[in-house]
Amino acid sequence: MSVSRNREYGGNNLMSSDVPNAKEIVQLLDMVESKSSFESLSQEFRLRFPEPETYFKLTERVVPCQLCSGLSQLLHGSDLLGGASQELRAAYLIYDAFREGRPHENPFLSLFIKLLHPPEQTVLQSATLAKLCSQARWFLSHLLVIPRESSAHQAMLTMTAEEVLAKPLSECEDVCDTSNLQVHLMEKLAELSSVDRIGVSCVVPTLKAGGCPAAPDSPTAQILRRNATVELLTHEAAYRSFAPMFYRIPPPLHVGEETLTWLEPVSDYVDKLKVLMMQRSDCTHLAEFYTALVNMELSLHSMEVVNQLTTATELPAEFIHQYVSNCIATCETIKDRYMQNRLVRLVCVFLSSLIRNRLIDVRELLIEVQAFCIEFSRIKEAASLFRLLKNVD
After folding, report:
1. Which residues form a coiled coil (predicted)?
2. Is the pTM of this model over 0.70?
3. Residue 160 — φ and ψ, nearest 5°?
């Protein structure tokens, strides 16, 4: 069985309270299978459903009425109806439900346009939409275009679906021009967002090997099809469609003047440490600054800060020894060969600057620095630092 989406003008899916019940669907199928004239069919339609405000009235949002949504599902699911006559009666009932208004105001106008002018579709899509014959398209086009008060229109309503389908093809060639209705439809669709115009049916048809809908005509199959249709159209899920999720990004929280700001510890402000430590040189927590600087991730900025601090103030010898040891240990433990060579060059240039400016006592670090230079002697800066140590000695 197959059902297509219920959104003709991009209306919302039916809510659970709007879904027809089993009794209504059975009555609907009885009328679709009836061989009465269209005029009698219209009278029976309103006799069985005497509350137009419940079944036919449109809201300001142009949400399709529940019964016509069920009829639309029957037309979209060509394996749910038992032939061309039933398809024509279903299309007529949708038209008749909104006969008081102008044709272009019918919320199912897009369905009529697709029935009259089937778009190019894939095998699966074409199998789900009813294919009207020339006689049926002639009848439906005249319903939409000819004024309802005209004698020609009234004469058409005295016919049955079988009589319409039995008309000679030569009498059904003058299909009415519906271009004006198509223009109204395009204007209506243009008012909708792209999300409202997109949707895929939640129910797909059962196809035979040749790509045609599986709709056997045996009595047993007809009973099974009718029962399946009643069960299907009484569930809310049959009227839904898969559509793109519209994500609404939550706006950022308003930051007031007295709102506390959460500070994350980052190393982006390492170049500010020199100014901070110079301003707080008399602070009792200065040792904690030195400890944080020693344990900070080795980088060009951190070495520049230490180099500037050594020229601006007298640093504890223990701090310098720990920092140099940390630099050497970092170079020895890094796994990435490229990053290792880069850090070794930076450390060698840093140590050479401290030694040339006599900012550190090289004798305290001589053995450790010499071992470092020998280990990385393949690097030019390390060899230059080793020669500098020899000259100092």
Report:
1. none
2. no
3. -100, 165
Task: Burial-class residue 363 by CB neighbours within 10 Å (0-12, 13-18, 19+).
Answer: exposed
pLDDT in tens, 294-323: 877 777 777 777 777 777 777 777 888 888
Return the closest-CA partner of residue 144 out of 172, 194, 110. Answer: 110
Length, in residues, of the chain: 393
> Which residues touch 78 (CB under 8 Å, ≥6 apart)?
2, 87, 127, 128, 129, 130, 131, 205, 213, 215
Start-to-end Cα distance in the chain: 96
Cα separation, 393 vs 374, in Å, equals: 17
Contact assessment for residue 246 and residue 195, using Cβ atoms and an 8 Å cutoff: yes
CB 78 within 8 A of CB 72: no
User: What are residue 242's phi and psi, to 5 degrees?
Assistant: -75, 125
CA dist., res. 350 & res. 301, Å (int): 11
